[in-house]
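Fig. S4 source data, part A: sequence.
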Amino acid sequence: MESPMDRMTKLFAHLGRFDADTWMSTVDLLASNMADVDRNATRIWFAFYPLKLQLALDAADAANEREATERKLGLMGHWGLADTIDSSHRFLYGHRYWPQVKATVEAIETVPAELGAIITQVAESASKTLRVEREAVLGMAAIALMTLRQVGPEKFAAASGQVQLTAAERAQTPKQILKARAHDDFQGVFGFMRGIRKQWTVTFNEHDPDARFTAIQAQDLATAAQTDKREYRSKDARCIPNEGPIPVECRAASCGTCWVGVLGGAEKLSPVEPHEAARMRVFGYVAPQVGSQPIMRLACQARAQGAVSIVIPPWNGIISRL
């Protein structure tokens, strides 16, 4: 009789058949079936943890060239999933379902041939255990399987599977979160007359009520973050003292340090201009679209025209060099 580890090892080997492009196209295909609250968040997570980068680093490890590869790619911050298996997806509403989704992956016996069918099967099984709609866990199912693909069965099984949410956060509904993301700051009775004096709240961690700063109308997010003079360097060595929570080096789209994911309000940021689009390609960052607006932006180029909710990636680099 096969042990759970034997089954997961077989699943890991099967997942290895699918290249990075297949993973991304499959997630894009399944996105329309994901819960609204996690559709963008799932695609942001896949942009933050690209399989191509992990495969390159694995190959570098095998050739004893890890440090040289990291220097070549200009990597800064904390990349990879090995140390964040339980926390990398905390910005998803579906994070609360992580223990059940992880357990489902560990218990899978029959593995479908196609990647989309595997993700759907995990979501279906976990949703029955949780007694929620499949769409609520579809994004987390894809994330769990990609995490297994990148860290391997031993590390995946060793992770605690704990949820990192407070009781108040657990009580939130998807509707409440979507409403908060769509909300714009009240500008007063005569707000329409404020023009460039309008002020918008930028949320950079939905789990922390203090993780906010203010952007004035048409101000780029990186410059607006400068108003937040709290100490962030101890949490993220890329942060410059008195420059706010968004790591930034140049403010001209030259460094790529300030890329962010947009959970809510992508349509309330200035359109992407050719310079920003070109620089995103130079860095190799994935930029999924929501309507006409991408949900990955360079904060120094994205100008606020309303309140937005963003996620700051844990790393940056020039992975186009892969």
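Fig. S4 source data, part B ends here. The chain has a mean pLDDT of 95.
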